[in-house]
Design brief:
Elements lengths: L1 E3 L2 E6 L10 H15 L6 E6 L4 E3 L4 H4 L4 H6 L16 E5 L2 E3 L1 H8 L2 E5 L3 E3 L13 H9 L1 H10 L3 E2 H7 L4 E3 L4 H13 L3 H14 L4 H15 L3 H11 L10
Parallel strand pairs: 2-3, 3-5, 4-6, 5-7, 6-8, 7-10
Antiparallel strand pairs: 1-2, 8-9
Helix pairs in contact: 4-5, 5-6, 9-10
This protein binds hexanoyl-coenzyme A.
Length: about 250
């Protein structure tokens, strides 16, 4: 993990296994993200994979292969990842290559996803005799809709970065060498905003995935009103009226 100008960069580093996500990686990544969430000097988090071949080629099949039901249930297999749900700060996935199975699911756990032109995505779990276990059956349908979710999960078809962008799985595609500069550019833009306001926006959007529209709109309204309790609302609007750049204090 490195931090760069208020941005925490988490890199999955298991090149020998194409950055497959074993339990140690899961634990470290989730705990580090939670730590960064509590660090006031960090305003956004980027997750990427080492090298240019793989973001993450999935959960670690070698680790999963010998598990039985009792071990999976009692050991809460893959549940560690749920920890990312509680992170308030925005998390950006910079997808640098294969994002397969759990790798693709990790992309969907993030708030913003951008990819290099050579990145590919798939949910190949059915070919391994299991269903997705890191959220794809739920997040994919909310991200790309039923038709594409069924297609990806039931066929395991690998899709390109361009197709992933077209279907809304990711928001931008850039040349490989531009991936981290672009991820940092996006993160720095977010970092300039008021941290509690950014957190409120993220929270409202995530809430919208879970509740009916009328409840989501009510939730947004209350959170919007609560912004007026912040000095940052005063600073932001005063700066606009004075034709100056806003300076936010996170208060
Ligand atoms: C463990 C993996 C791995 C994985 C690759 N490796 N993916 N190890 N878990 N998910 C290892 C290989 O065993 C190999 O190690 C090394 O990485 C290099 O991989 P190769 O296959 O030799 O590379 P290549 O021929 O370029 O093929 C790349 C690939 C292929 C197409 C990405 O590796 C592949 O199909 N990987 C599995 C992708 C997958 O099915 N992911 C979903 C996992 S299940 P050795 O030691 O042999 O050299 C999942 C479900 C989660 O994520 C939730 C439900 C349980």
């Amino acid at each position: 993990m490195v931090t760069l100008e208020g941005v925490g960069i988490l890199t999955v580093t298991r090149p020998e296994a194409l950055n497959a996500l074993n339990s140690e990686v899961a634990q470290q990544l989730v705990e580090t993200a939670k730590g960064l969430d509590g660090d006031r000097s960090v305003r956004a988090i980027i997750i990427t994979g080492q090298g240019s071949k793989a973001f993450a080629a999935g959960a670690d099949i070698k680790e999963l292969a010998s598990q039985n039901y009792s071990q999976a249930y009692n050991g809460r297999l893959l549940e560690t990842w749920r920890g990312l749900d509680g992170v308030r700060k925005p998390i950006l996935a910079a997808v640098n290559g294969f994002a397969l199975g759990g790798g693709c699911e990790l992309v969907m756990m993030c708030d913003i996803a951008i990819a290099s032109e050579t990145a590919t995505f798939s949910q190949p779990e059915l070919s391994l005799g299991v269903i997705p276990g890191m959220g794809a059956t739920q997040r994919l349908i909310r991200t790309v809709g039923k038709a594409k979710a069924m297609d990806m999960i039931l066929t395991g078809r690998r899709i390109t970065a361009a197709e992933a962008e077209q279907m809304g799985l990711i928001s931008r595609v850039v040349p490989q060498e531009q991936l981290m500069p672009e991820a940092l550019k996006i993160s720095r833009a977010i970092a300039k905003c008021s941290a509690p306001v950014v957190a409120k926006a993220k929270d409202c959007i995530k809430r919208g995935l879970e509740v009916p529209l009328s409840e989501g709109l009510r939730y947004e309204m209350r959170e919007f009103w609560s912004c007026f309790a912040l000095q940052d609302q005063k600073n932001g609007m005063a700066a606009f009226l004075q034709k100056q750049n806003p300076v936010f204090t996170d208060g």
